[in-house]
Amino acid sequence: MPSMRMIVDLNDFKKSVTIHTTGQSGHAFNKHYNDMIDLWRTIQYHPMLWDRGSVEAAKEAVLMLEPKK
Q1: Does any domain span residue 69?
Q2: Which residue did the predictor score with more confidence, 39 or 1?
Q3: Considering the entire predicted model, what is its pTM?
Q4: Cβ–Cβ contacts within 10 Å for residue 54, how many?
């Protein structure tokens, strides 16, 4: 598992930030496989999303899984 840094504000979780050494995806051919390397190297972070509204606003796609009928 790659290393990660996380700063959690226990007083206000919405102020918490995180970063991985490589990227969001573990799949080598995904565009997010190495999208955090430069951020890690230059000590920058992504906000941690704690509420549904923030997640919905930042989403890139939706995957719907439905049981087979």
Answers
A1: no
A2: 39
A3: 0.72
A4: 13
